[in-house]
User: Fold this.
Amino acid sequence: MVCADKSKAWKRPFDGMVTTDIDASILTDHMMLMATELGLGSVWICYFKPDVLKQVLELPENLEPVNILALGYPAEPEADKDRHSQTRIPMDELVQYK
Assistant:
């Protein structure tokens, strides 16, 4: 489980936005990249009840569960690295430049 520490979060001075979700997401992404380098598969899980996790794991008030990262050895062979050109929206349809 990846948690954000609300007591150490950076706050944008212009509007007070707290970056805990962003920071935890960057960390999770890096963990997934490292897992791939180690030959592990990973799944990002956001479908959970944070209050239940906090209670069961006895987390302090300042820690906010952001996501769960499941790691393991894939049961299936590695996917074709070129599959995205067939399964994703083409970049020129997704991104606009001005």
User: Anything to note?
Assistant: The longest strand covers residues 63-72. Helices lie at 20-37, 50-56, 84-87, 91-94. The domain at 2-94 is CATH 3.40.109.10 (NADH Oxidase).
